[in-house]
Amino acid sequence: MEKSEQPDFYFLPFEDRRPPEPVPYSMWRELLWQFLATLALGIGAWYIAWRWGWSLNYNALWFSIPLVMAETAAYIGLALFTINLWKTWDYPKQEPPAYYADCVREAGAAQRPIKIDVFFPSFDEDPELVRLSLRDAKRIRYPHPIDMKIHVLDDGKRESMKQLAEEEAVGYITRDNNIGFKAGNMRNAMEQTSGDFILICDADTRPFPSILEHTLGYFRDPDVAWVQTPQWFFDLPEGRRLPEYLSRYLGGLGRGLGKLIERCYGPVTIGEDPFVNSPTMFYDVIQRRRNWANASFCCGAGSIHRRDAVMEAALKGWANQIHRQMEKDLGKISAHTKEQAIDEKLSHLMLQQVAQETEFTPYKFHVSEDIYTSMMLHGDPEREWKSVMHPEIESKMLSPQDLLTWTIQRFKYAGGTLDICLRDNPLFRGGMSLPQKVLYGSTFWSYFGGLWNLIFLVSPMVYLFTGVAPVSAYSMDFFKHILPFMLATELAFMVGTWGVAGFKGKASYLSFFPVNLRAIWTVLKGEKIKFPTTPKDRQTGNFFNIVIPQVSVIVLTVISLTWAWANYYFMGNQGNYSMAGLVTNLFWGLNNIIAMSGLVFAAFWKPESEQ
Predict the structure, then answer these.
(1) How many domains does the chain have?
(2) Residue 338 belongs to what domain range?
């Protein structure tokens, strides 16, 4: 199919966009960050100790205790996040290997070209969208002879996708069932392929020609199990500068007003990345700074895996499953019969039976199979597998273009990670180093944030409606402790995130609380997190129902602010408010309103083509 015959995809005008360069490393900036972070954590510990020991309102412990517990939980999260961002260490790059023997430890390994399988798992995506990905994959170059095979893994069992594979001269792999969803799809493909390495792509992943020549060199270290490359969404809305945006509605007056505002506050862009989809903070800062602890984890698309590592981890996981099941069953039989130890023959027969009932899979059938497999490999006490977070972007893909898709994706991330944490946590099995456990623990802890974020959203309303304070007094002692902590933390992370993170990221995390709470509740109820595919097309409709919790926070906060200030000035201060308390909760409430407003705006956002 010629380019002129391509469907009118919304992202075609963005095809010429180029990815940003990795955030440059600065030793002096890192040293400054480490100093400021240490200072912030020290002041924070002083603040938390004061909160527990000297500031509780003993006349309202029902309010004071939950808030100080939330502050403590948030401080623990801050400490874990600080450890994650402590330093940057990029894995040394090496020349692309010419032969398979260059990537293994065994003497006398075959001096043959490296074999690569490129997987494109698919379910219901538009075949023409997948065609673009396949054509980009066929442009992958390598400085040495290489045996590369591209495969469409079609769980949709569609004749159109099979025809596409034939037209593009790539492999087509399907199966009779959808057991395990994406993980089962990749397991099925691994059974039918034999590449030394596997490049995993999503249906919309468009690999750059350089992806293999820039990443296979890491595998010269025979202990490297996988390399993750940053994901880059090339279709993120760029938005409009404020003067241009206001001029659409107010003409010249709006343009002048926009310029005046920008002169005071700097450039303001409306509609830029409305769903806060930009992955720069996650890959270029959080994941990249896990390299020093060998704790960066696989995120699926854009990752390259050593087949032997995946299979070895699968075999050990399978054996461990059988061992645990045998211990459980033997224990039951022993208690039931009250006989002495079961003889070896019975144990052998039981092993055969358990082995038949235990499914062997290179990728655990789980909605978050990527991070689970990463933890299994990092936790292997015998092998000490390594992971690499490659700093340069080597592919492009599509971002969620509507709030429904955004919510589905975030719920899968949260629910899948919490499911691992609460039901089958590899951290408690040994094998990982302490830094690895801390950094994986940081990931788990962050998804419990909805619990304390809800308290932070409700607390100013409680004071504003009732006049009951969560502290003994909004006194100078209170401000003496909280303001240095807040200022030190903001300053530290302004330096520590190298300008990547900002208010939008923190606001998104705060407004994420309903999805986060639903994920926690789903896992606690014992329900399985479902495997819905993330839609690649923009979903249309009314998404107001998704943001009802955020709108409720905004409305109730505005009402509580109005009530409290009216009570103070016009009703004789019947609530016994203090001016310091009103001002403190005014700023707190406004912060919450602004944070919730971003997601509410996203519910009604439309691309310019639909406006």
Answers:
(1) 3
(2) 319-357
Query: Which residues contact residue 499 at a Cβ distance below 8 angstroms, ignoring those fewer than 6 apart?
Result: none
The count of other CB atoms within 10 Å of the CB of residue 176 is 7
Q: Determine the average pLDDT of the residues in 197-201.
A: 95
- Residue 237, pLDDT > 80, answer yes
Quick one: 281 and 373 in the same domain? yes
> How far apart (Å, rounded) are the C-alpha atoms in residues 100 and 115?
8
C-alpha 34/C-alpha 86 separation (Å) is 7
Of the candidates 419, 444, 420, which has an alpha carbon nearest to the alpha carbon of residue 519? Answer: 419
Q: What are phi and psi of 286, to 5 degrees?
A: -65, -55
**DSSP 3-state assignment of 269?**
strand
pLDDT tens digits for 328-359?
555 655 544 544 544 454 455 444 444 444 44
Report pTM: 0.88
Which CATH number does the domain housing residue 198 bear?
3.90.550.10
What average pLDDT score do residues 138-149 get?
97
Nearest to 184 by CA among 419, 359, 416, 378: 359
Calculate mean pLDDT across residues 204-220.
97
Pair 224, 251 in one domain: no
Tell me, what's the pLDDT at 349? 46
Higher pLDDT residue, 317 or 589? 589
Asked whether residue 216 falls in the same domain as residue 253, the answer is no
Q: What band does 260 get if pLDDT is binned at 50, 70 and 90?
A: confident
Residue 312 pLDDT level (bands cut at 50, 70, 90) = confident
Report if residue 341 sits inside a domain: yes
168-186 pLDDT, tens per residue?
999 999 998 877 778 788 8
Give the chain's end-to-end CA distance (angstroms, integer).
31
Q: How far apart are CA 545 and CA 503, in angstroms?
A: 25
pLDDT band, very low/low/confident/very high, at 362 (cuts 50, 70, 90): low
CB 590 within 8 A of CB 558: no
> Do 245 and 205 fall within a single domain?
no
Distance CA 27, CA 87 (A): 9
Give 359's contacts (C-beta < 8 A, 6+ positions apart).
318, 365
Do 263 and 194 share a domain, yes or no?
A: no
Among candidate residues 336, 357, 378, the one where a domain is terminated: 357
In a domain, 492, yes or no: no
Taking alpha carbons only, the member of 349, 331, 351 closest to residue 341 is 331
How far lies 1's CA from each of 6, 16, 106, 132, 209, in Å? 7, 20, 46, 10, 21
| Calpha distance 389→231 (Å, rounded) | 11
Residue with tokens 């199990």: 225
Q: Does any domain span residue 166?
A: yes
* Same domain flag for 224 and 373: yes
Same domain assignment for residues 209 and 298? yes
Q: Which of 584, 599, 546, 447 is nearest to 67 (CA)?
A: 584
Same domain, 247 and 223: no
Dihedral angle sign, alpha carbons of residues 356, 362, 368, 371:
positive
